[in-house]
Amino acid sequence: MLPVWIEAVEPAVLKATGAPARDELGAEVLRRWGSSEVWRLSYGLRSVIVKRGSDAQSTEGTAYERIVRPLRLPAPELFELVRLDGAVLLVLADVGRVTLEQEPSLDGYLAATELLARIRAVEVEGDSEFGADRLSELAARVASRAAEGFGQKVERRLRPALAELHRTVRPRVVHGDYVGKNLVTDGTRWTAIDWPLTYLAPQLPDLYTLIREAVAFGHDRDLLVTRYCDAAGADRDLVERQVLIGGCGFSLRALAWVIEEGVHTVPSSKDWIDPLLEELGGLLDQLP
After folding, report:
1. Closest Cα partner for 107 from 190, 197, 191?
2. Alpha helices in 53-204 (DSSP H)
3. pTM for the model
4. Which of 4, 158, 199, 202 is least enclosed by beta carbons within 10 angstroms?
5. DSSP string, 198-240
6. Distance CA 142, CA 77 (A)
7. Which residues are CB-contacts of 177 (< 8 A; sequence separation ≥ 6)?
8. Which residues pair with 47 in a beta bridge?
9. Where among 37, 62, 93 does a domain terminate?
10. 120-132 pLDDT, tens per residue?
11. What single-letter DSSP state applies at residue 177?
12. Residue 125's pLDDT is what?
């Protein structure tokens, strides 16, 4: 049975799929979390993705309006956007049924690095949304769960590295959750989905999270970095610095989310806290 909230976007769904009526639609639940619910609705060979997001997931509509649509990023086309009762409802093009998480091949990860290079090649206007103030805010939110001296290490190592990067590199688009589950293929092209966490910054957390996952599947880190540098025409040393600083930012953001929201919406995420703190500590130790 379809959830009641789909009534708010029913006209857009019927138009996009060509279905004569709601009860003619095929329905498949793709995700059902505390803050996010995703369905594939289909009629014959035509299908759409319908999402309801709340809490952190409710920002995807704003992300589409502010960044994804104006910059024509490689994301699913947005057919309808409705804000309702503290949540956002989206009707999106169905861009494929296979994710990189489902088929984590080296070729898939290399294609994803090339897609990321395309995203990062898009010039943007506006300032970075992950500078010193954001760093201090996140560090303060994480400090209660970190070891003694955590705040000093962030200030002594990460803050100057982040400041120097901002002086030398213009901000570009950061997807914010660039991992296999959010990279979809139709067999011909790859598309990045799920954009609620997108922001502008010079660092490269997206390449960090992609490499992190690829290495866990046994793929060669160097191949991915080399492919990204070639596709982006980027300096290897600079990219490595952007990835390292981006990894620190990713870990801080992930920890803050788990501590304040994840433990309530995804209870099992409490088990991520210690590994993320250890990961962040290792990254901070690599900074000069």
Report:
1. 190
2. 60-63, 69-71, 106-121, 132-142, 150-153, 159-168
3. 0.95
4. 4
5. -EEESS-HHHHHHHHHHHHTT--HHHHHHHHHHHHT--HHHHH
6. 36
7. 194, 197, 209
8. 42
9. 93
10. 999 999 999 999 9
11. -
12. 94
The CATH number of whichever domain residue 239 belongs to comes to 3.90.1200.10
Q: What is the CA radius of gyration of the chain?
A: 20
**The two three-digit tokens of residue 144, written as one number:** 């209660």
Task: Render pLDDT for 22-61 as a digit per residue (tens, 0 to 9).
Answer: 999 999 999 988 778 999 999 999 999 999 998 777 899 9
Residue type, 80: E
The Cα–Cα gap between 201 and 183 comes to: 21
Is residue 245 within 8 Å of residue 162, measured between CB atoms? yes
Asked if 237 and 140 sit in the same domain, the reply is yes
CATH of the domain at 79: 3.30.200.20
Give the strand pairing for 183-185 and 172-174: unpaired
Q: 41, 50 in Cβ contact below 8 A?
A: yes
Q: Residue 120 corresponds to which tokens in the numbers above?
A: 């990062």
